[in-house]
Input
Amino acid sequence: MNKHQEHKIPILSFYSGGGLMDMGFEKAGFEIIWTNEFDEDFIKLHEAGITSWRKARGNGVKAEIFNKKSITEIKAIDIINEAFPNGKPECFGIIGGPPCQDFSMNGNLKGFDGDRGKLTEVFLDKILSLMPTFFVMENVTGLVKRKQTLDYLNELLKNVRSKYCIDYKMLNALDFGVPQFRERVFFIGIRKDKLNDEIGCRSKKWFEYLENRNYQDSAKNYDWPKAIKFGHKKINKPQDIPIELCVYNCLIGKEDINKIPNANEHFKLYVDKKKLINIKEGETNRPSFKRLHRYKYSPTACYGNNEVHLHPWENRRISVREALRIQGVEDNYILPAELSVSKKFKMIGNGVPVPLAEAVAKMLKKILIENKL
Output
């Protein structure tokens, strides 16, 4: 038995949100021992959702956000004292997805000049202050697709690269069995002084360790159905397309809508429903009121301004539970009914799909084992 089976490597989670990335790391065998979230509603959603999810898995550890201050206000020494009251361990990691609206190709493109963009810089500063064995940072692809932003990022990473071997890659959740086209960039850094082969740092390609490639390039490899007239109750699924890559499996019928937690929570349509019937099933190339196709993947689940996708054959928006399923979240992750539906959708849209987070975590674990960390 190796030491990774004897004990779980501790993780500090920044910008924890609803804990979707945390779940992926817990499923891969890591232990989330410290969390940070500033938004009061997200804190309540996180604590309720993760606690119910852990309980269903036989884990009695109640979830709580350990530090509720803005990351800009937290000193490194306070984080260490809160997370490791008995002393900092030899091996631990940091994960986080700094707010990314300023880098989004569909956003305001303020980049590092925006208030949220600056939080990426703060996150990297915390890495150097805390010196974890490894770190994972997730963000929108706009962070590396725009030359101006990438150039500035590389300047920020110079100090980090003096201490860490870093690799990054754009990953699509669809390629990991999630019924959603969601591209994000992941950065992985491992301390040079912890590696067996520090000299070969420049040649390190951590993402070659990724598994679960059964769905690689799924957006291109299948003949996905075209948009069809709204209102069909039954249509045939294309035989070659895996059902797990279709939103159909995420949808909840009327007979179960009051039985499954959060399944009856959705925004009411304050527009003429008669106008919406003209929006085809699968018509997702619209600026708003995108209607999903039951036998196709969802566009990126990004629910800003309450712009939640329309159900394929019912004249409504998808529910909180359906959105959670599209993010790869299990039904035993239960959110309090009394909390804001708007905040629930925002939290869900901010999260990392759980299967994608788990794949990255498993890859990282293999690297750590190889280097005897």
Notes: The first strand starts at residue 10 and ends at 14. The chain has a mean pLDDT of 90. The chain has twelve helices and six strands. The beta strands are 10-14, 31-35, 93-96, 134-140, 164-172, 183-191.
